[in-house]
Amino acid sequence: MNDLSFYIHIPYCIKRCGYCDFNTYTPSELREGASLEVVSGDYIDAVLREIDLAAQSGPGSVPTIFFGGGTPSLLKPQDLGRVITAIKERWEVTANCEITLEANPDSVDAQKLREFIEAGFNRVSFGMQSAVPHVLKVLDRTHQPENVARAVQGARDAGFESVSVDLIYGTPGESLDDWQLSVETALNLSVDHISAYALIVESGTKLASSIKRGEISMPDDDLMADMYLLIDERAESAGMQWYELSNWAKPGHESRHNIAYWENANWWGAGPGAHSHIDGVRWSNIKHPNAYKSSLLEGKSIVLQKEILTQSQLQDEAIMLSIRMRKGIALERLTPAQIARIQGYCASGHLDKAQWDLGALQLTAEGRLIADRIVRELVV
C-alpha cells in the first residue's frame, strides 16, 4: 500500500440541525441528562484502537488527515492531537500533510484555535452555511452570522495555513438576494476555499417534516440553478477557481483530502459509521457510538458491511467521480459508443469545446448543472 488518507469521525453535536441526516448525536440522545464530557470521555481511546487495526494493513505514507462530524471542534484539541500523534507514530506522514478540522464558529475562540495548531492541525473548515439570519433559523444553525468573521480571523491569527467555509444554497425561503449576500460575505472573509452545496432534504429530518406539513416549501430548480451560477461567477472573479463541482479555491488551497475521495484513492475512515476504501475493497463501521466503543474495547469487529468492487464498478465510479473535477475525463478512457452519446453536449454548451478538442471531457458551468444526466449517458 502506498498513500493512505485518514478520515476521523467525531459523532457529537450540541444540537442537531434541522436538515442534518449525518451520523451524529447530541449528548442527551446517547444518555439522558449526560454532558458532552461524559458521553465522549472514552471515545478517543476507542478511535486509537481502530488506528491500531489500520496499522495492520501495512506501511505507507499519509498525505491527508481530516476530522469531520458532527462537530470535531467541540472536543479538546489535546484529545484530537492524540489521534494525530498515533498516526504519525505508525506511518510516514508527508512533510506537507494536510490536517483539517471541521469547526462550528461558536465552538472555538482564539485560545482554542491556537491549541488546535499546537495539536498539529494546519487547515480549518468552518460551517458558515449562510450570512442571513432567517436562513440560518430554517436550518436550525446555532451560530450568529457575525461569529464566522471572528472565527476566521482567529484562525488566521493562530497560524492556520488554509481556511475554508461551507455554504448551503436552496434553503426554503432563501431568495437569490439572500444567497448573493451570503456569497459576497464569504468572499470578503480572509478565506482560501469555499464549498457550496445544494440543500438536500433527507427523509426523517425536522426540515423534511416541516416541508411535508406545508409549513415551508423548497425553491424551484431555476432558482437553484441561478444560485449555483452566481457563486461560480463571483468566486472566479475573486480569484477562486472551481476545481470540483461544489468547490472553489485559491491556487494551492484545494482540499487534497477530498480530492483523494474523488480520485478513489485509499483512505481509512475511523469512527462510528465511517467508510473506508483500500485497493478496491470498501467497508463501513457500525453506526452507534456506544456500540462502536464497546466493540473495540471488547475486541469485536466494528465492520457493518464490506464490498469488493468489480472492475465494472470501479470504471463506472471513476467516471462518476472524475466528471466532477475540473480536469475532467480523458477521452481516451471512453469507448467510441460513450463518446458518440455525449458529443452533442459540446454543441449545447454543456461541455467545454476547447478542452474536448484537446482530448478531455470538461463540464462548463451550465454542464455542471446537469452533471448527473451526462453521467447517466456514460454509464448506461
Automatic annotation (TrEMBL):
GO BP, one annotated term = porphyrin-containing compound biosynthetic process
The record, for Pfam families, names: Radical_SAM
UniProt GO MF annotations: 4 iron, 4 sulfur cluster binding; coproporphyrinogen oxidase activity; metal ion binding
> Which PROSITE patterns does UniProt cross-reference here?
RADICAL_SAM
- InterPro entries listed in its UniProt record: Aldolase_TIM, Coproporphyrinogen-III_oxidase, Elp3/MiaA/NifB-like_rSAM, HemW-like, rSAM, rSAM_sf
Q: Spell out the GO cellular component terms annotated for this protein, sorted alphabetically and separated by semicolons.
A: cytoplasm
Q: Does the keyword Cell inner membrane apply?
A: no
* SUPFAM superfamilies linked to this entry: Radical SAM enzymes
Q: Domain Radical SAM core, which positions? A: 1-241
Q: Which keywords appear in this protein's UniProt record, sorted alphabetically? A: Chaperone, Heme, Iron, Iron-sulfur, Metal-binding, S-adenosyl-L-methionine
The family assignment reads:
Belongs to the anaerobic coproporphyrinogen-III oxidase family. HemW subfamily.
Name the NCBIfam families for this protein: hemN_rel (TIGR00539)
**Protein name (database record):** Unannotated protein
Look up and give the organism this protein is from.
freshwater metagenome
